[in-house]
Amino acid sequence: MSKNIIVDMQGVGKKYARVSSASAGYSTIRDSWKSWIKSPFSSNSNSRDEFWALSDINLKVAEGDVLGVIGRNGAGKSTLLKLISRISPPTKGRIIVNGRVASLLEVGTGFHMELSGRENIYLNGAILGMNKREISKKLDEIIDFSGVDTFIDTPVKHYSSGMFVRLAFAVAAHLEQELLLIDEVLAVGDTSFQQRCIGKIQNISREQGRTVLFVSHNNAAVANLCNRGVVLADGGVVYDGGAHEALSFYNKSLATHNLTVSGNVDRPHIVSVMLDESALMKGSLRVLVKFASPRELDPILVGVVVHTLFGAPIFGFNTVMDQNFTPEPLREGQAILEVEAPPLHTGSYKMSVWFGEKNENFDVQHDVLSFDFIGRQPLPPGVSLEIAGPIAVNGRWSVKN
Amino acid sequence: MKFSESQRIVIEPGRRLTGIWKEVWQYRELGLALGLRDLRVRYKDTFLGAAWAILQPLANMLIFSLILGRLGKLPSEGIPYPVFVYCGLLPWFLFSNSVTSSSQSIVSATHLIKKVYFPRLLIPISSLGVNVLDFIVSAGLVVVLMLVYKIAPSWAVLLTPILALGVLMLALGIGLILASMSVTFKDFRFIIPFILQIWMFATPVVYSSSLIPEKWRLLVYLNPMAGYADGFRYALLNGRFPGVELLVAMAMTIGVLLFGLKSFSAVERNLADEL
């Protein structure tokens, strides 16, 4: 007997109009009035820059599937969840959803700082689609799971950020909908909290047999949780299969050495990221990050993080960490990071790049490049990166009797 | 089959044409929770919450009594001017506060709209809860004023809830129109206070409608709030019965509300993308 189909997407597409200040899509009366005076008879339809965030998606999700959605920034992952959850309507095609949907696009949606923990449980529960009876029934369980029981009648503005996140996730973890849509929820909280979240999601999917769609840049979480993986690229499904296979397909598909990014040009953004191949051959890293901004940035903030293929960070280095780095105010330019002979084993890695100003990030490009690193000493045969880990150390053995 | 037909959702492009009220009913608990949230935040401290509700009409009553009642010696249909003006301010503030909160509710709920699905109509509707409670609290002061000025109520006082409902529906209709417009025109919300200010002085709130010259009478009929203001004074203070004026106001209320719902349903589905 075939399983019930929970989500059936048939030729679904989503078009967005990218509105830039240069080609004004009407945002204020003043703007529209001005452009009407300039050209009273032309229509404004061509001033909008349109693009398909998703195109022709055909996807069936069966009951009990735990589907990991993988892809680079802007591949359409979040749009996919927004369409299935009805937050945003599709431009083309049809989606049939059987059952109740809970969308956890962030932790603690609608929490109000002035209200107590208990009041927020009811409010957040209602927002996530539970009724009052369901919440009352599970109230003790939720409070217990959150571990904030002594503060439950205190306004959440007095909570620490850890308590806040724990309470918010506790509500989400007790939802009863048939389909859970989870977007980057695990990006917050400390490691032990993330472990607990993963455990809870595992429990929800395996023991309760519910269906989960999971978007994350944390590849290890995807590998742990999911029994199926879908890779999105440029708004289309490029791979659909097992979670591990999908991850390795994705890692192989990452650009090597050079990538041009198409970001929002109204904000400070990364233009391209390049890896110096000749430096790489010599066992060093040289990363060139081109950036541009509509205004001067003082000072720029650029950071590079190197990850294993499973997404675990190995090291990160940003402009603040280099005390000798004192840039002039800049609108555009190229930031170059040189790391001479990083202590890495031979193997494949990937990197993410951050860009911003002072302490604020404006553009984050996850998994922007993948690269093969050649370490100083090769690993002995039979020893892989998974066993030895990515860090190469110089040790000395001796033996005494 | 495990899932009933009611749990089956078909999502397609284009604007929704039917089923919105059914869905609002399905999500009524969320609407209640959102309204309750606003009430809780406002009335967290019961005494202060109530004080704020009374402060607005009370302060206005004192100012207008001093300027127009004392100094201007404005006639007020034989009723003491402070009571007269308070009974006009009562429906007016219900109206103007409801227009303000419902028209701005969508933009202030941007975050929620982008993260979860629910019928968006719940937001402007639930934003009215606070205004209703404020109205009830400030209506309590009328009882005090009537005792002070020794005015006995008549049976017409029973009309008050119906009139208040009319004012609320009119405000919701206008709020929905303004909310839909402020999605496209982001600076629209700056104009709303001006519109309301002018509208207040065009309405017989602080003066009697009998002061309006005969050739401007039409203005009173075209302004539904004039009918409601006179209606409130009739119901609470045995003032002049506004008959035709009130019927016209109620008919216009229905028209405005329908138009508001129509313009809101045109933008409703795309809110997450447009905001």
Walk me through what this model shows.
The complex is a heterodimer of chains A (401) and B (275). With 401 residues, chain A is of the alpha+beta class. Chain A folds into two domains: 5-39 and 47-253, Rossmann fold, CATH 3.40.50; 258-388, Distorted Sandwich (Coagulation Factor XIII, Chain A, domain 1), CATH 2.70.50.60. Chain A is 25% helix and 35% strand. Chain A is built from ten helices and 17 strands. The longest helix of chain A is centred in the middle third of the chain and has 17 residues, at 191-207. With 275 residues, chain B is mainly alpha-helical. Chain B has one domain (19-274). Chain B has helices spanning 20-26, 28-42, 46-71, 81-108, 110-115, 122-126, 128-148, 160-184, 192-202, 217-222, 224-237, 243-268, 271-274, and one strand at residues 8-11. Chain B is globular and about 60 Å long. Chain B starts with 7 loop residues before the first strand and ends with a helix. The interface between A and B is large, with 47 and 38 residues. Strand 4 of chain A pairs antiparallel with strand 1 (8-11) of chain B, so a sheet runs across the interface.
Using brief descriptors, characterize the structure shown.
heterodimer; A: about 400 residues; alpha+beta; Rossmann fold; Coagulation Factor XIII, Chain A, domain 1; 6-stranded mixed sheet; 4-stranded antiparallel sheet; 10 helices; 17 strands; globular; B: about 280 residues; mainly alpha; 13 helices; about 70% helix; disordered N terminus
Please write out the topology.
The complex is a heterodimer of chains A (401) and B (275).
Chain A: E1 5-18, H1 29-38, E2 49-62, E3 66-70, H2 77-84, E4 92-98, E5 101-104, H3 117-127, H4 132-146, H5 161-173, E6 179-183, H6 191-207, E7 211-215, H7 219-225, E8 228-233, E9 236-241, H8 243-253, E10 258-260, E11 269-275, H9 277-281, E12 285-297, E13 300-308, E14 313-318, E15 330-339, E16 347-357, E17 360-373, H10 385-388
Parallel strand pairs in A: 3-7, 3-8, 5-6, 6-7
Antiparallel strand pairs in A: 1-2, 1-4, 8-9, 10-11, 11-12, 12-15, 13-14, 13-16, 16-17
Chain B: E1 8-11, H1 20-26, H2 28-42, H3 46-71, H4 81-108, H5 110-115, H6 122-126, H7 128-148, H8 160-184, H9 192-202, H10 217-222, H11 224-237, H12 243-268, H13 271-274
Helix pairs in contact in B: 2-7, 3-4, 3-7, 4-7, 4-8, 4-11, 8-11, 8-12, 11-12
